């Protein structure tokens, strides 16, 4: 039984990081604990971390000591080989790997980069390591600027070489010409016929383009301005040597300007073009010759509202330009956009279900937050829904929107004035492409009159006039809710700025509750270290009576089922079983009886104390015959005071991610955010809302 996978490449710049990041995301959604190991890393300066290890560990928050994630540097390996001590090399790698294997359910092992000469030796080393670790291999190649025959020949040679020593699970050819995907895949399948999975991924321009930061580092540049925009992508570059009026005609989108440091006309012209609606965006400006603009020019630049990176470098323009042309893009821990794009690319082109089935050869009863979040994302991707975000001017909402669009998980509409939203996106440097979202100003919408008339018809019995309906429909919460009512959106997420009442009132007025449901309530998905607990109701109902408490429990159980968790309901109180007396505990006991009567198939226990509900040892002691005690997945609190304080205490003291509040009981999904919510909270809540919409 394999507990790991080895990712090996056969050439430089293969895009192996796309595969590693995608695999890690997939594995964290399928396996309780995933480790990462990179046997051989590049030679580094003292105190510097390997970029691959740093990127994977920081993005996925892996709990591994850095020194335990690798065995040797490249020069150390060459020294051992030159001394005839290759056996010692393998022994140490096996030792390091086994130490990780004891801690983790599955290990993703990343091979070397082929970034230097001795590629034949590197191929042998990767085969030797994977063979001695007993791991199947995923081979990664690249098809950039190659003919089909050249790609197929090199892939088949690599496959046959590895296959002599190890099992080749999958072959992934990266950076292929988009027009050749089908033909390349067909030819590879014709040549490699032993059941090995074949995947072809097209070249993604945003992953192939270096950032200004990468270019600056490669040129040993000095950043004069624009430190906060160093992650700008550079898709083109050109030399500003002609007069400004002529050079402006050569600018392309996300172009890097290369010009001597004394060409104030080109520098200022490029900066102005970047903020002009009539010219493409500029990614940065490289000032050659070691020349710095004069003080008045620097002062003028410093006063501009938007400044892309200005970087001074040594060397003449011709030499610098050639050097920039040779810089290869890489993915690092700070470039979240590239990481997200890599993961989304992998998930789009790789049959992850099939690959996971072949990789994961063991079973685990643990349902971790990583698994939960991965499964949520996959479910949302399976049936893409349209979610409206009324608070289009909030920075957190805009950043969450960028993350959601980058993951291709939902269709989004932001409410607000388009010019103001564009201005905020640019000002805050948010990587959100407005061409990929809908922006609606309620009063300018072609649906505004219809929405107002609809609201008037729905509420005229409450003495609402048509003019009052128009005034009401100009409110973003009402407009967003009406979009759902009319079928122009599938769900809404609000509350980052507005109160719960402001978010919920329009939903109660005309979305209304589901048949048979009298009460809107809420749950939080509490993502603890080793499990998911569902807390309800911690946000909506202050002091529910027994009937209402029973309805909260039933709704929470249904929601929990919808999200793939078996509901085992604990009706919480200050006593367990029949020992407690008093009005509060009697309310919980009565609510439990109501649930048992109305839904006899539900697993429920109450009244029960929190510790007995979640701790198997205590649960067995206090309620030895209960199938819920110690195993509760749904915890129903007796009132809002207890529930709200408990969820916040658990969240703060354990570091748990609290997803919610997720509202339940409405005909269409509308979810409320805390005004202290984070970007990740909004991101998760939108995905939850999309899945709720799938179940309507």
UniProtKB/TrEMBL annotation:
Q: Which CDD domains match?
A: DTBS
Question: Quaternary state and partners of this protein?
Answer: Homohexamer.
Which superkingdom is the protein from?
Answer: Bacteria
- Species of origin: Flavivirga jejuensis
Q: Does the keyword ATP-binding apply?
A: no
Major localization class: cytoplasm
The domain-related comment in the record is: The N-terminal region seems to be important for proper quaternary structure. The C-terminal region contains the substrate-binding site.
Per its record, the protein catalyses:
acetyl-CoA + phosphate = acetyl phosphate + CoA
Family the UniProt entry places it in: In the C-terminal section; belongs to the phosphate acetyltransferase and butyryltransferase family.
Report the Gene3D superfamilies cross-referenced here: 3.40.50.10950, HprK N-terminal domain-like (3.40.1390.20), Isocitrate/Isopropylmalate dehydrogenase-like (3.40.50.10750), P-loop containing nucleotide triphosphate hydrolases (3.40.50.300)
**Cellular localization per UniProt:** Cytoplasm
* UniProt-recorded Gene Ontology molecular function terms: phosphate acetyltransferase activity
Domain Phosphate acetyl/butaryl transferase residues, every copy: 371-690
Q: Give the protein's biological function.
A: Involved in acetate metabolism.
Q: What is its EC number?
A: 2.3.1.8
Q: Which UniProt keywords apply?
A: Acyltransferase, Cytoplasm, Transferase
Which taxonomic lineage does the organism of this UniProt entry have?
Answer: Bacteria, Pseudomonadati, Bacteroidota, Flavobacteriia, Flavobacteriales
Which residues belong to any copy of the DRTGG domain?
Answer: 214-324
Q: Which Pfam families match?
A: AAA_26, DRTGG, PTA_PTB
Q: In which pathway does it act?
A: Metabolic intermediate biosynthesis; acetyl-CoA biosynthesis; acetyl-CoA from acetate: step 2/2
The record's section on InterPro entries has: DRTGG, P-Actrans_bac, P-loop_NTPase, P_AcTrfase, P_AcTrfase_dom1, P_AcTrfase_dom2, Phos_Acetyltrans/Butyryltrans, PTA_PTB
Q: Which gene encodes it?
A: pta
Stated name of the protein: Phosphate acetyltransferase
Keyword NADP present in the record's keywords: the answer is: no
């Amino acid at each position: 039984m394999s507990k790991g996978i080895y990712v090996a490449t056969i050439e430089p710049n293969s895009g192996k990081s796309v595969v590693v990041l995608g695999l890690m995301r997939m594995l964290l959604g399928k396996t309780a604990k995933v480790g990462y190991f990179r046997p051989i890393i590049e030679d580094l300066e003292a105190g510097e971390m390997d970029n691959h290890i740093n990127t994977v560990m920081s993005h996925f928050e892996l709990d591994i000591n850095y020194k335990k994630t690798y065995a040797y540097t490249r020069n150390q390996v060459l020294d051992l080989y030159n001394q005839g001590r290759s056996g010692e090399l393998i022994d140490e790698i096996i030792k390091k790997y086994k130490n990780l294997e004891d801690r983790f359910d599955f290990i993703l092992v990343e091979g070397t980069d082929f970034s230097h000469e001795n590629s034949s030796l590197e191929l042998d080393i990767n085969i030797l390591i994977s063979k001695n670790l007993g791991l199947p291999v995923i081979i990664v190649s690249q098809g950039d600027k190659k003919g089909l025959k050249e790609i197929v020949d090199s892939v088949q040679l690599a496959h046959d070489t590895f296959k002599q020593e190890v099992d080749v699970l999958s072959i992934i050819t990266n950076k292929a010409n988009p027009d050749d995907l089908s033909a390349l895949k067909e030819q590879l399948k014709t040549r490699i016929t032993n059941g090995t999975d074949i995947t072809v991924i097209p070249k993604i321009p945003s992953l192939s383009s270096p950032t200004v930061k990468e270019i600056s580092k490669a040129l040993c540049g000095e950043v004069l301005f624009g430190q906060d925009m160093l992650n700008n992508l550079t898709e083109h570059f050109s030399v500003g040597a002609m007069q400004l009026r002529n050079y402006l005609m050569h600018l392309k989108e996300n172009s890097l300007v290369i010009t001597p440091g004394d060409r104030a006309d080109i520098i200022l012209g490029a900066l102005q073009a970047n903020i002009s609606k009539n010219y493409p965006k500029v990614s940065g400006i490289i000032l050659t010759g070691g020349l710095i603009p004069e003080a008045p020019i620097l002062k003028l630049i410093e006063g501009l509202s938007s400044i892309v990176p200005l970087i001074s470098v040594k060397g003449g323009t011709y030499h610098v330009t050639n050097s920039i042309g040779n810089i290869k893009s890489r993915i690092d821990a700070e470039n979240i956009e590239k990481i997200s794009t890599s993961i989304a690319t992998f998930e789009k082109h790789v049959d992850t279900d099939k690959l996971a089935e072949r990789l994961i050869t063991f079973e685990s009863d643990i349902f971790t937050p990583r698994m939960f979040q991965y499964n949520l994302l996959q479910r949302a991707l399976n049936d893409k829904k349209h979610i409206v975000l009324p608070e289009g001017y909030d920075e957190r909402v805009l950043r969450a929107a960028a993350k959601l669009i980058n993951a291709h998980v939902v269709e989004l509409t932001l409410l607000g004035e388009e010019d103001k939203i564009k201005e905020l996106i640019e000002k805050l440097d948010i990587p959100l492409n407005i061409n990929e979202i809908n922006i609606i100003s309620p009063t300018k919408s072609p649906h505004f009159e219809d929405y107002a008339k609809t609201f008037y018809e729905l509420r005229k019995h409450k003495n609402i006039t048509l003019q009052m309906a128009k005034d009401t429909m100009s409110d973003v919460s009402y407009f967003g809710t009406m979009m759902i009512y009319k079928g122009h959106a599938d769900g809404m997420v609000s509350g980052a700025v507005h109160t719960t009442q402001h978010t919920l009132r329009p939903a109660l007025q005309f979305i209304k509750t589901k048949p048979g449901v009298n009460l809107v309530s809420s749950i939080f998905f509490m993502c603890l270290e080793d499990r998911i607990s569902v807390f309800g109701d911690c946000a909506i109902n202050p002091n529910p009576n027994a009937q209402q408490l029973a309805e909260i429990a039933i709704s929470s159980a249904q929601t929990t089922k919808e999200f793939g968790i078996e509901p085992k309901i604990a009706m919480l109180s200050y006593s367990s079983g029949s020992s407690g007396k008093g009005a509060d505990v009697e309310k919980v006991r009565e609510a439990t009886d109501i649930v048992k009567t109305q839904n006899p198939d539900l697993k429920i226990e109450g009244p029960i104390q929190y510790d007995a509900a979640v701790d198997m040892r205590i649960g067995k002691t206090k309620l030895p015959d209960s199938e819920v005690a110690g195993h509760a997945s749904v915890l129903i609190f007796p009132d809002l005071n207890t529930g709200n304080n408990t969820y916040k205490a658990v969240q703060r003291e354990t570091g748990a991610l609290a997803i919610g509040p997720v509202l339940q009981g409405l005909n269409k999904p509308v979810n409320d955010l805390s005004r202290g919510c984070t970007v990740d909270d909004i991101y998760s809540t939108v995905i939850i809302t999309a899945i709720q919409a799938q179940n309507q």
